[in-house]
Amino acid sequence: MKLVVQEFLTLDGVSQGPGAPDEDTSDGFTRGGWFVPHLDEAFEALAAEWLAEADAFLFGRRTYENFARDWPRMTDHPFATILNGLPKYVASTTLTEAGATWNPTTLLSGDVPARVADLKRQPGRDLQIHGSARLAQSLLAAGLVDELRLAIAPVVLGEGRRLFPDCGAPAGLHLTEQRTTPAGVSVHVFTVTGTPDYATYGGGA
Questions:
Q1: What is the CA 99 to chain-centroid distance, rounded?
Q2: Nearest-CA neighbor of 35 among 10, 13, 52, 12?
Q3: Topology of 2-14+33-169+176-184 in CATH?
Q4: Among 79, 99, 147, 195, which residue's CB has the most CB atoms within a 10 Å radius?
Q5: pLDDT tens digits for range 151-204
Q6: HSE-up of residue 33 (Cα within 13 Å, Cβ side)
Q7: What's the CA gap between 59 and 134, in Å, rounded?
Q8: Spatial distance between the Cα atoms of 178 and 186, rounded to a whole number of angstroms
């Protein structure tokens, strides 16, 4: 399977709490819900296209707990059949069990990058990470992420947890798709190419 990271971001790179003011208030964050005003039919159609490419999902603990709480009750949502029905994996050092209310779910513990590498060797299409920025950062640093799908809202928050923090792992990227929705969300799809290239500008074309 291909490991795909899908993230909602602000223009200053914040990924924390896009969906509601109380979604993630860790570290005193009070500016959640910033992505919702920029949702439109075009973006929801794109999200449905991406979701249709999934064969499994991978979450960190916090995102998993939010999804496992909400999605089993959202049976009439057009995304519910896929999210509720496909295999889910949760990487956590603190959970002792998973999946009691959101099956099928498998807990990944111990050497998470090695476990994820094993999952990638299984046949299939996308193994998708939705949110779970800390997990995405660690797997990008481990060289396991194949594709980034970034939806950037036209907003600057000035605080909050960022997908790409200072002193994070460097990565070379190749842009494969770019579009902007009527509501102003800028969508960028990148393949991860390894380490960045570096050069010195010498002038000319």
A1: 20
A2: 10
A3: Dihydrofolate Reductase, subunit A (3.40.430)
A4: 147
A5: 999 999 999 999 998 888 899 999 999 999 999 999 999 999 999 999 999 876
A6: 6
A7: 10
A8: 7
